[in-house]
C-alpha cells in the first residue's frame, strides 16, 4: 500500500471492514471477478468507511461528503476534477484527468443498474457504487447521518447474512434483506424508494 494511504483513517476502516466481512461472510477477495457478490463486498466496506468518515467529521461541514479515499491522488494531481476514488452519492464523477498516452480518462463508476448492460464490462469497484448510491439516497431520505438509522439498518443486514448461504447474494437479494431489516424500524418505504433510484425495484 502506498505510504500516504496508511494514514488515512477511512481507508483503514475500509480495509478492516473487508477483513471482517471476509471472516463473517467468506466473500471472495474479488481477484478479477466482476460480479454482484464481489461488488457488494466492496460496497459494504465503503459503507463502513463512509460511516467512519462522517462520524469523524461530525462537527464539520464535510459530514455530507460522500467521496471515498479523497487523498488517493497525489497532491500534484488533486484538482476540482479529481476528488477521490469514488463518490457514493454521485458515482462516475469522482475523478478525470489527462493521461500522458491514453488522453482523457475518467471515473466509470455506475450510478444505475442499467449501466451493467453497457458494452464495456465494469470492474467490481465500478459496480459497487450502485448499492452505495442506494445507501446514500436512503441516508438523505432519512434525514439522519449515515451512521444513524440507515447505517444501523445496513450493518444489521450485513451481520445477518450467513456464510455459505449468502456468500453469492446479488444486488436485488441484498436490497430485499435491507428492506426486511427496515420493516422492524417501519422505514421500509424509504429503503424501497432509495433502491428504486438506482433501478432496483423490490416488491
Ligand atoms: Zn475495497
UniProtKB/TrEMBL annotation:
GO terms for molecular function: metalloendopeptidase activity. It comes from the Eukaryota. GO terms for biological process: proteolysis. Pfam families: Peptidase_M4_C. The keyword Hydrolase applies. InterPro entries: Metalloprotease_M4, Peptidase_M4/M1_CTD_sf, Peptidase_M4_C_domain. Gene3D superfamilies: Neutral Protease Domain 2. Residues 35-200 form the Peptidase M4 C-terminal domain. Keywords: Hydrolase, Metalloprotease, Protease, Zinc. PANTHER family: NEUTRAL METALLOPROTEINASE, PTHR43579. This is Zincin. It comes from Karstenula rhodostoma CBS 690.94. The lineage of its organism: Eukaryota, Fungi, Dikarya, Ascomycota, Pezizomycotina.
Amino acid at each position: 500500500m502506498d505510504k500516504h494511504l496508511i494514514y488515512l483513517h477511512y481507508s483503514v476502516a475500509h480495509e478492516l471492514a473487508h477483513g471482517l466481512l471476509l471472516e463473517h461472510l467468506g466473500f471472495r477477495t474479488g481477484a478479477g471477478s466482476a460480479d454482484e457478490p464481489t461488488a457488494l463486498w466492496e460496497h459494504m466496506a465503503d459503507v463502513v468507511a463512509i460511516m467512519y468518515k462522517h462520524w469523524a467529521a461530525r462537527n464539520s461541514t464535510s459530514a455530507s461528503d460522500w467521496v471515498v479515499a479523497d487523498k488517493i491522488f497525489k497532491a500534484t494531481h488533486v484538482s476540482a476534477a479529481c476528488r477521490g476514488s469514488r463518490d457514493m452519492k454521485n458515482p462516475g464523477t469522482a475523478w478525470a484527468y489527462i493521461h500522458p498516452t491514453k488522453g482523457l480518462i475518467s471515473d466509470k463508476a455506475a450510478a444505475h443498474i442499467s449501466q451493467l448492460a453497457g458494452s464495456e464490462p465494469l470492474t467490481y469497484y465500478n459496480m459497487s457504487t450502485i448499492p452505495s448510491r442506494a445507501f446514500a439516497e436512503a441516508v438523505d431520505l432519512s434525514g439522519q447521518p449515515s451512521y444513524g438509522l440507515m447505517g444501523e439498518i445496513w450493518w444489521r443486514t450485513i451481520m445477518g447474512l450467513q456464510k455459505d448461504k449468502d456468500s453469492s447474494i446479488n444486488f436485488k437479494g441484498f436490497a430485499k434483506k435491507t428492506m426486511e431489516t427496515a420493516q422492524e424500524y417501519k422505514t421500509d418505504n424509504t429503503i424501497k424508494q432509495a433502491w428504486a433510484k438506482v433501478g432496483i425495484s423490490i416488491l
